[in-house]
């Protein structure tokens, strides 16, 4: 993961590698390491431009609070804030949203989706959540939104909390279960245990959310073959609308990496990539055998006609995104940005009436095309017609060398209309995408 990718890297080889420190998951393009504070002014310019016809708008709200820091976590989270500090933060996010919603790019538009991520959005009390969402809706009404997504940690989801989450309009509840075994949960620093998982799931079902997703991680510390099989059995018993499975990565700012470093170890104490991919493959096969369909490199869905990933599909086809809160990511009219990642500077910027931007990047039309292409590859299929129509590009010609290489490796097949990834290609899709980056973006650190 950390070696410099060559124009035609060797994914089959890297798939066998031990898990070392670094990020493997590609969530945006160009890579974050190219975003800079020099480009902050681009965000102002983008927000002051006219709203583009037909571009969808999403709203992301970041809740950076958790009960406990998981050992594999690399997000900006706080575990020590009291109710007053949380209220100060929520007030700041409302001030930020108010300022953003008044800009020419946003004024008059309504979100196509709203997403509460973190951190742990369900860490908020029912009262905090209701007040926050009432204030948000008064600024930017959600009545046209097709999806309101919300991440929940099982141990925070009591009956009153779940009722409030349903009441504010959440359609997609995503449960960060990660694993069903208490020892694995404990050793990885998770705050919840399996008893809370089953209780939260049952209560969430009783609230009749349109979609319940379960997140799992393949290859947590002390994962075993038997425990992983048990995970698959348990998730099948619960039968959620969708299952999202990540392969464990060990980024540099995690507790696990800090322990590796102090012990002088280069290899993380988790399974190698080939094993993690096999575990996901087995999980997908088991889920397919009971009626699920695999909808991306990470997800299986019970009823694809009914269960959509509105936020994902909008973002992966170029939607604008208002990212609100500390460390949030956003996209405004071709400009990527991320907010300040520490609480104090974030609050200070909001109090000073400034945009709390840490870094930004204005994309070119070619970079936007590549971004959409690599993100859509994660779905397992890419339609040539979409890119011809939207970007005027013939993907087969533009990427002929890379596509031939991946076809030879058995990771894709291409017809006149589309590219399809094989199951093995899909399971290592993040390692295949560097080949499509512009030469100047192929760096050692893809974070
Ligand atoms: S619950 Fe999620 S955001 Fe919070 S510490 Fe754990 S991994 Fe990080």
Task: Give me some keywords for this one.
about 450 residues; alpha/beta; Arc Repressor Mutant, subunit A; pyruvate-formate lyase- activating enzyme; three-stranded antiparallel sheet; 18 helices; globular; disordered N terminus; binds iron/sulfur cluster
Could you explain the architecture of this structure?
The chain is an alpha/beta fold. The protein folds into two domains: 1-29 and 365-447, Arc Repressor Mutant, subunit A, CATH 1.10.10.920; 30-314, tm_1862 like domain (pyruvate-formate lyase- activating enzyme), CATH 3.80.30. 38% of the residues lie in helices and 17% in strands. It contains 18 helices and 15 strands. The strands form three sheets. It has a nine-stranded mixed sheet. The protein starts with 10 loop residues before the first helix and ends in a 15-residue tail after the last helix. The structure holds iron/sulfur cluster. Residues 66, 69-70, 73, 75, 77, 118-120, 153, 176 line the site of iron/sulfur cluster.
Bound molecules: iron/sulfur cluster
The CATH class assignment of the largest domain is: Alpha Beta
Instruction: Kindly report the name of the CATH homologous superfamily of the largest domain.
Output: tm_1862 like domain
What is the mean pLDDT?
Answer: 93
State the major sheet. 9 strands, mixed
Residues in helices, as a percent range: 25-40%
């Amino acid at each position: 993961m950390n070696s410099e990718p060559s124009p035609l890297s060797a994914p089959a080889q890297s798939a066998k590698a031990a898990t070392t420190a670094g990020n493997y998951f590609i969530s945006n393009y160009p890579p974050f390491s190219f975003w800079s504070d020099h480009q902050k002014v681009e965000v102002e310019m983008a927000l002051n431009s006219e709203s583009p016809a037909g571009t969808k708008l999403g709203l992301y709200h970041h809740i950076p609070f958790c009960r406990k820091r998981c050992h594999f976590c690399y997000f900006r989270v706080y575990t020590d804030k009291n109710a007053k500090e949380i209220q100060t933060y929520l007030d700041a996010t409302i001030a930020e949203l108010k300022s953003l919603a008044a800009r020419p790019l946003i004024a008059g538009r309504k979100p196509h989706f709203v997403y509460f991520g973190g951190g742990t959005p369900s860490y908020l009390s029912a009262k905090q959540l209701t007040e926050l969402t009432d204030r948000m809706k008064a600024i930017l009404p959600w009545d046209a939104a097709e999806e309101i997504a919300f991440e929940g940690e099982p141990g925070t989801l009591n009956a009153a909390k779940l009722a409030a989450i349903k009441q504010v309009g959440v359609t997609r509840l995503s449960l960060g279960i990660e694993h069903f075994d208490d020892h694995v949960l404990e050793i990885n620093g998770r705050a919840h245990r399996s008893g809370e998982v089953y209780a939260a799931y049952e209560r969430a079902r009783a609230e009749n959310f349109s979609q319940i997703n379960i997140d799992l991680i393949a290859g947590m510390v002390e994962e075993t073959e038997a425990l992983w099989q048990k995970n698959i059995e348990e998730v099948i018993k619960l039968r959620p609308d969708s299952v999202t499975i990540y392969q464990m990565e060990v980024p540099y700012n995690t507790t696990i990496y800090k322990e590796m470093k102090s012990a002088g170890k280069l290899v993380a104490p988790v399974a190698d990539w080939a094993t993690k991919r096999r575990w996901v493959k087995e999980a997908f096969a088991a889920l397919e055998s009971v009626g699920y369909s695999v909808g991306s490199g990470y997800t299986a869905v019970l009823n694809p006609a009914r269960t959509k990933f509105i936020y994902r599909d909008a973002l992966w086809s170029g939607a604008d995104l208002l990212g609100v809160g500390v460390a949030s990511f956003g996209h405004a009219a071709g400009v990527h940005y991320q907010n300040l990642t520490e609480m104090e500077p974030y609050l200070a910027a909001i109090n000073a009436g400034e945009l709390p931007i840490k870094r930004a990047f204005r994309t070119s039309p070619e970079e936007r095309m590549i971004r959409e292409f690599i993100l859509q590859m994660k779905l397992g299929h890419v339609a040539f017609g979409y890119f011809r129509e939207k970007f005027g590009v013939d993907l087969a010609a533009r990427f002929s060398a890379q596509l031939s290489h991946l076809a030879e490796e058995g990771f894709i097949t291409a017809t006149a209309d589309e590219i399809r990834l094989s199951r093995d290609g899909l399971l290592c899709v993040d390692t295949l995408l560097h080949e499509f980056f512009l030469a100047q973006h192929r760096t050692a650190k893809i974070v």
